[in-house]
Amino acid sequence: MYKKCPHGRRKKQCKNCSPENVCEHNHIKKVCVDCRKSAGTYLCEHGIPKYRCLPCGGKKKVITRCDHKNDKFECVVCSPHLACEHERIKRRCGKCRVQKRHIKCQHGREQRRCTECGNEKYIHKSCEHNKIKGICKVCIGNSCCACGKLKNQCSIHGGSRLCINCKSTIKKTKYGNHCGRCFVNLFPEDPKSISYRNKPKEYIVRRTLDESFPDLKWTHDKVLWTGNCDCTHKRRLDHQVIIGNTMLVVETDEFAHVGYDEHDEEIRYSDVAMIYTGKFIWCRFNVDSNKEARGSKTELEHKLRILVETIRESIRRIEAEENSEMCEIIKLFY
């Protein structure tokens, strides 16, 4: 086992702990493909990787080729008995593995893990509840804690699979051992934050606001609270900016929040007003189609242009002190 650095990686492969091992392409030198291409050691004279080039023989391992220029022992044409229904080698077919993983037996479990179906691999590991002993929450196996959770998913008894920031959501390696939401909030300028799959439409609006109003310091997807306030709700606003004594808020409402509780939406205005005592202009922007006739769907680009014009007019009114109401709500494309 390799000892990991404070960032959860091998010390020699960590860009923070070993910056001398990082190349100009921001990759580890040993595994950087661009460095090998530029050095001329990666590609052969035919313009493909040397270890995959058939005329050059390949240097990674010696493979016996058939008449179809495939591995002789993995050719679907030469050995049709090795092929699955998807015309691929069975043990390498991703579709077959996915289907096999989701096949349910008569007992309502995954067939490959059911002990009652006679799977010898798991019979000696099963408990009286027909589950793997280590992960059985009733027996409190080695992998379970007293809280009734798996240890690697419990913030009190380990939590090795949890986000290093919030300690409540499963972490992801591509987000640096953070969950997606924490990574977006901590590193908003990172390219991965812009393409975060959980809220793609919200980030389109975010990018539009930042590009259209570069002089304003927008705050995106942050909890609204102050250091002197001990509020329990801590409402999260999609996009907000304070101009003078007015807070301009843009809410990205997918499908006009049709399934949301209207009473809770009214309470939300009051909760936010308790934290900031100035004036408010709420712009509720629907990015999806709602109550629009079939065949007359409004394009998102057109909606964004109307949003920018509305915000520009709201800024003009705020600077001219024409907004007299304490809470003004503007609904677009509802």
Q: Strand pairing plus helix content: what structural class?
A: alpha/beta
CATH architecture field of the domain at 200-332: 3-Layer(aba) Sandwich
Let me know the average pLDDT: 77
Instruction: Please mark out the parts with pLDDT under 50 across 5 or more consecutive residues, or reply none.
Output: none
Task: Offer a concise description of the structure.
The chain has 334 residues and is of the alpha/beta class. Helices cover 23% and strands 10% of the residues. The N and C termini lie far apart (57 Å).
Describe the structure.
- The protein has 334 residues and is α/β, with parallel strands linked by helices.
- Helix content is 23%, strand content 10%.
- It has a 5-stranded mixed β-sheet.
- The radius of gyration is 28 Å and the shape is extended.
Which key features would you list for this structure?
alpha/beta
Would you spell out the secondary-structure blueprint of this structure?
Blueprint: H1 33-39, H2 94-101, H3 120-123, H4 180-186, H5 191-194, H6 200-212, E1 219-223, E2 236-243, E3 246-253, H7 262-275, E4 279-286, H8 300-319, E5 327-332
Parallel strand pairs: 3-4, 4-5
Antiparallel strand pairs: 1-2, 2-3
